[in-house]
UniProtKB/TrEMBL annotation:
GO MF entries: transferase activity
InterPro entries membership: A1-4-GlycosylTfrase_dom, GlycoTrfase_DXD_sugar-bd_CS, Nucleotide-diphossugar_trans, Put_A1-4-GlycosylTfrase_plant
Transmembrane segments: 28-50
Name assigned to this protein: Alpha 1,4-glycosyltransferase domain containing protein
Stretches of the chain forming a coiled coil according to its record: none
Keyword list, A-Z: Membrane, Transferase, Transmembrane, Transmembrane helix
Pfam family, one: Gly_transf_sug
PANTHER family per UniProt: ALPHA 1,4-GLYCOSYLTRANSFERASE FAMILY PROTEIN
Organism: Trema orientale
Limits of the Alpha 1,4-glycosyltransferase domain: 339-462
Length: 470
């Protein structure tokens, strides 16, 4: 029996076992009380380290080894969402690892259906920053002004050196006009932009000029075209015997003995701020006036297509819009100018430019300028100002707001009749068609459109081309 009912005592073996357990308990507590505090701290540190590893470690399931372990890793988001990748860290391509040990030498990237872009808790300790996610440093107004000022200084410094070629501007222009027997007609274009931006449309403008004026002389005043690469643009015309040249502008010479001379010196020394509008655009507005004042002839923008000869035009400027009630012009434009040498109206244009220059208003120094001057001259009846304002169909048969209609092909019978009617009107009433490049540069010429017909009329060597960006 385990318990004696008469004596109420446990058997002796059980008493011995209980006594030994009490003795072991007292010994264990005594040992723990004797352990140094530093050992307890070490034990706690180990427990914390284990806990940290378990938190930050990503446990991935073991996958079967793919058939092409040598495939390069591709960590694009699309690739990660499509298939798992195996990255082999072995430095020897000839070493083969057993399947039992492949988990120790390979890292697997697995696909998770609809996986979030970022894990919420399991981040690497030192993550590599993703530059696409870095918020850009905001550019303040002062930073923009500083950058603009630096670009402006570089541009102003370059103005004096644009005509530093082997021969001066005046000599090259004189030799071109004399050797080419270019008394009339003389045509001028300016190009202040980069050479790469002189494209098919600009080249076709030159082509259409020579189609309607095969004996003309064209001087393109441009630093970028007056170069080895730029001459390649003119080579097709030169090979066909057309008289065309490119000359870097000499502003000091062209502006000399005009009000533009003082204005340009103030601009170059920083005493006149060019404003927010492109300096090249405003210089082109002034340069065309000074070129015609010094040499006389015809100036046209590079986004016009010639339709008829200018042989009968003399001292004319074109109206862009008219007042439907009065029939009088409401705005002129300076994209096409035909004037004799030293015409007084040109001098008034130059004076107005220098006195009212504003580089922050688009058109203020161009179309609005000639409109202001002609309006004042007409109202005051100045003697000696013999010139003619041609109606809009002459140079601007379509307003800039409707220029898309010239590039679109007709889709029904009504539009077909409109296209044929408008085309007939342009062929009989217009000398050029201004394409308003700022609004139409991204438009493509459609087959059967008005521009398609005009291109066929005005082409020389691009008639069979499939160019749709005229």
């Amino acid at each position: 029996m385990l318990f004696d009912l008469e004596t109420h005592r446990l058997p002796k073996p059980i008493l011995v076992l209980v006594h030994q357990l009490h003795t072991f308990k007292r010994s264990l507590f005594a040992f723990l009380l004797c352990v140094p505090t530093s050992l307890l701290a070490l034990l706690l540190l180990i427990l914390l380290a284990y806990n940290g590893v378990s938190v930050f470690c990503v446990h991935l399931p073991f996958l079967a080894k793919p058939t092409s372990p040598e495939e390069p890793a591709n960590f694009s988001r699309q690739n990660l969402a499509q298939k798992p990748l195996l990255l082999n860290w072995s430095t020897s391509s000839s070493s083969k690892l057993a399947s039992s040990s492949s988990s120790s030498s390979s890292m697997y990237v697995v696909r998770e259906e609809n996986a979030p872009l970022f894990l919420k808790t399991q981040f690497p300790i030192f993550p590599k920053p993703d530059v696409s996610l870095v918020k850009p440093v905001p550019i303040t107004g002062s930073t923009r002004r500083t950058r603009r000022a630096r670009r402006l200084k570089r541009k102003l410094r370059s103005l004096s050196s644009e005509a530093q070629t082997s021969q001066p501007f005046s000599k090259r222009m004189r030799e071109f006009f004399v050797s080419g027997n270019c008394s009339k007609p003389r045509f001028f274009m300016t190009w202040i932009s980069s050479l790469s931006s002189f494209g098919e449309r600009e080249s076709f403008a030159v082509e259409s000029l020579f189609k309607s004026h095969p004996d003309a002389c064209l001087a393109i005043v441009s630093k970028t075209i007056d170069s080895a690469d730029g001459i390649r643009i003119l080579k097709p015309f030169l090979e066909m015997g057309f008289r065309v040249t490119a000359v870097s502008p000499d502003y000091d010479y062209v502006f000399k003995n005009t009000p533009a001379e003082t204005w340009f010196n103030l601009l170059r020394t920083g005493k006149i701020h060019p404003g927010e509008i492109s300096l090249g655009q405003n210089l082109s507005n002034l340069l065309r006036l000074a070129l015609l004042y010094k040499y006389g002839g015809v100036y046209t923008d590079t986004d016009v297509i010639f339709v008829r000869s200018f042989s009968k035009l003399k001292n004319v400027i074109g109206a862009q819009t008219i007042d439907l009630e009065t029939g009088k012009w409401s705005r002129l434009n300076n994209a096409v100018l035909v004037f004799d040498k030293r015409h007084p109206l040109l001098l008034e244009f130059i004076k107005e430019f220098t006195l009212t220059f504003d580089g922050n208003k688009w058109g203020h120094n161009g179309p609005y300028l000639v409109s202001r001057v002609v309006s004042k001259i007409g109202s005051q009846k100045h003697p000696g100002f013999n010139f003619t304002v041609l109606p809009p169909p002459a140079f601007y048969p379509v307003d800039w707001s409707r220029i898309q209609s010239l590039f679109s092909s007709p889709t029904d019978e009504f539009q077909s009749k409109w296209v044929l009617g408008k085309l007939k009107h342009i062929r009989t009433k217009s000398f050029v068609v201004h394409l308003w490049n700022r609004q139409s540069k991204r438009l493509e010429m459609e087959k059967g459109s008005i521009i398609d017909y005009i291109k066929s009329d005005s082409c020389i060597f691009s008639c069979n081309s499939s160019v749709s960006s005229v």
